[in-house]
Amino acid sequence: MQAKFGMDEKWGPDPNLVARGESKTYWWLAGFRWFLIVAGWVQGILLTFGINRRFRD
User: Fold this and answer.
1) Domain chopping of the chain, boundaries
2) Does pLDDT of 43 surpass 90?
3) How far lies 30's CA from each of 15, 39, 51, 54, in Å?
4) Residue 17 near residue 25 (C-beta atoms within 8 A)
């Protein structure tokens, strides 16, 4: 089961770009979106490790 909060419909790249012949734009936006998601996870993990290390020493 997957929770949907309506974010994909509002903030996701428009699939109609492919139908209008702007598939490069769609795939660039989709790739950039995934890059931001992964970068956010990496930053969160690094922040957690940094805070944990700071209070452990």
Assistant:
1) 23-57
2) yes
3) 10, 14, 32, 36
4) yes
Region of residue 52 (left: phi > 0; alpha: psi -120 to 50; beta: else): alpha
Which strand (E) or helix (H) includes residue 6?
none
φ and ψ at residue 21, rounded to 5 degrees: 85, 15
- In this prediction the pTM is 0.65
Question: Cα–Cα distance between 39 and 42 in angstroms, integer?
Answer: 5
21, two tokens: 């012949």
**Confidence class for position 51, pLDDT limits 50, 70, 90:** very high
Question: Which pLDDT value is given to residue 57?
Answer: 61
pLDDT band at residue 41 under the 50/70/90 scheme? very high
